[in-house]
Amino acid sequence: MHKREMAKEKDVPQLLASSSKKRRLEVSIEHAPAAEGSLAPYAAFFPAGLPDNPHHPAENGSAPDQKEGITFEAFRSTAPFRGKHQLLLGRGSGIDYVGANFPTKQGSRYVVGLFNKVEGTLKVTAVGGDKVFRMEPRVPGLEYENDEAAASVPDEELEKDQAAVAAERRAKREMLVETFGSRKARVQQNARQREKVEEDTIAAPKALTSLLSSAVAAVPTREEATRSVTSLESRLIPPCNPEATTPAGVYPVKLLIPPEVQKALDLEPYQKAARHPERPLKMYFGGDISDLVKKRVHKLSVEGDPRGSADRIKCLAYLAYLVEFYRLPPQKVNRFCSGRRGADSEEIVAGRGVEALAQEAGMPVIVLETFMERFLTKLPGRGGGTEYARPQKSADLTIAYILVAALHVDQFCSDPEDVAAALQMTVGQLVPRYKELGCKVRKLTKAQKEAGGSGSGYEVTLPVPVVFPALKRGR
Hints:
The chain is of the alpha+beta class. Among the domains are: 61 residues, no CATH class; 224 residues, no CATH class. The chain has 19 helices and 13 strands. One of its GO terms (cellular component) is RNA polymerase I complex.
């Protein structure tokens, strides 16, 4: 190491005078690499002042002697991803000096004290950052706000840290979605979590092999896939008999309306209205009645069936309840029927119940419970309990039941205009839904429209034997 020569007081004027003279010197710079396996040389800074005789090296691991001054040793980490971490240690008789190029444990705590001479008190407070900051001179104008420590971190360690941060953020995001997210967001998140294959979900390699084997076995063959495409189970339609020879037999009433619901239907107002079509409907129904039902009550009495068939009357009463339930928002169902945790307790607080909701909706309890079971999906609610949702598939199935019930009342020759109005849809939106049921949709000419009194200009029929359209297979 180079020795620094100190200038004497009498030499200072001479040095200052000579510094003003311009001289040209020729110098050469040569890079001297460190010896193999050596960590030196080091540059050290002593904020408390230079120690006495700081350049004494350690010899053969001997302990420092008070007369010999400070013994310096250098250490390099052998831990994975820590190869660049080095520590310089100077041990003396009364004090140690420690320097490192990585964050180390705090050797002491610093406080700032304020002494009050009048009161004789000393107030102390910890310094910010719990250490004394070393202010180094730097080139002005550069950005120092960003953390420059990441530049010295190995790529493997940096990737590991980034993965840990990403996992922590993902966990917090999932917690927020579970607590404050919408019903749709929670369903999507639960589906993504079920699809994950991680170490904590697979106990051993054998379990992974079993999981993959079961997944391969679950893949359908070409024949099975073809059968599933043409299968009635994959269609969002009511139970049907494709071998039936009559339109009413394709969607039989006994399968369309469950027996317990048939017993709960109030058919008397419809029977009286069918026997006396000249009387106002308010005599039998009391309150408001939808246009969809109002237009079909007078169709119950036909030639050869003056009182209306029992099946068509059941379908009309069932249709009225179906439309009412379709208009019922799931949020209202949740207010009445879903349990939630109370604000001041861990107990599940139940809503007013299905009975109260059925009374407000104007339908029997058994009918409402059947609709909720068939056309709604149960989900875990916020803070416990259960919530109800209406996914798109459930809404499509409800519409299919409404269309079939209306076809029964119309004797399978229907004008879709009032059905579309009741569902707040257009006739064009209902056309593909009718075709999915196996119906034939015919656009009427102007003369046919005027003769038949069709408001929409379309006629929907159900030909037999029924033919269903081919299902679209996802790629």
